[in-house]
Design goal:
Order of helices and strands: EEEH
Helix content: 25-40%
Number of helices: 1
Number of strands: 3
Radius of gyration: 14 Å
Distance between the termini: 21 Å
Strand order of the largest sheet: 1-2-3
C-alpha cells in the first residue's frame, strides 16, 4: 500500500525557473540553481513570508494536476 503525503501541480512548460523557494514560519529561503554552485539566501520577516505565501497560492491556483 502506497500513501501519498504531498500533492504536486505543474505550471506550463514554457515557464522555466532555476529558483526554488521554501517558506516556513517567518522565513523565506531562495535557492538559485545557476552555474556550478547554488546561490542561497534567507529572509527573516513575517510580512515578506506572508507575501510569498500569497504568491504561492496564486501559482497553485493556476497550475494543473497531472
Amino acid at each position: 500500500l502506497r500513501k501519498h503525503y504531498s500533492e504536486n501541480r505543474f505550471l506550463p512548460s514554457y515557464i522555466d525557473n532555476p529558483v526554488v523557494i521554501n517558506i516556513y514560519g517567518d522565513r523565506v529561503v531562495n535557492v538559485l540553481w545557476k552555474g556550478d554552485f547554488p546561490l542561497c539566501f534567507v529572509m527573516v520577516n513575517k510580512g515578506v513570508a506572508d507575501a510569498y505565501r500569497k504568491y504561492f497560492e496564486m501559482l497553485w491556483s493556476v497550475s494543473e494536476k497531472r
